[in-house]
Amino acid sequence: SSITHPRLGQQLELECLATKDDSGVFWVRLDKDGTLHFIVFISYLSRSTFEGNAKTSIRFEAKKDGKVYRLVVKSFTSQDEGNYFCLMNSNQMLYFSPGQPVFFPVTTTPAPTTSAATIQHGITEKDPCLKTPDPETSKEKELDFFCEIFIWVPLAGACLLLLIALVVTVALCQQTRRRRCRCKR
């Protein structure tokens, strides 16, 4: 939705338009520290699975209407701030939405004024550690994170498939071996 600066306690609704009907949608949130949080998976049959394999959540609602998958933050708090993404897995490809930044409005405070006495004595109070984060650097970190996901998720899936194939092969070989050993010598 168009709300990017919600108020405390306000309900927030985000939408994701899926291109395919045969797959569900994951909703995740990237917090200020760069940590990715799973929120919910909504299946194409409108079944929701929240964190911890729960069917409901006290903080979120999940809805599906046709090809539109909705995430509702019931009462927005500071722990809900971040960039929200919907993900869809289709034909073994993982698709990310561009992301929706949702943060409380930044409150600005006027710069402190110095008195004439302070100026006369040449005393100034500055914090040498205060720095504004470089937006380009934080963008690069986000891109690096998503590039890593594009590499690690398919790699983990391929490893899982190979492990399953190995287990099946060992099981079949054991059955074949037992059949050969039943013969009398």
UniProtKB/TrEMBL annotation:
Keyword hit for Cell membrane: yes
Protein name: T-cell surface glycoprotein CD8 alpha chain
Top-rank taxon: Eukaryota
GO-annotated biological processes: cell surface receptor signaling pathway; cytotoxic T cell differentiation; T cell mediated immunity
Statement: the UniProt record of this protein carries the keyword Transferase: no
Transmembrane residue ranges: 149-172
Any one of the GO CC terms: external side of plasma membrane
Lineage: Eukaryota, Metazoa, Chordata, Craniata, Vertebrata
Localization in the cell: Cell membrane
Ig-like domain mapped to chain residues: 9-97
Keywords: Adaptive immunity, Cell membrane, Disulfide bond, Glycoprotein, Immunity, Immunoglobulin domain, Lipoprotein, Membrane, Palmitate, Signal, Transmembrane, Transmembrane helix
Membrane topology qualifier: Single-pass type I membrane protein
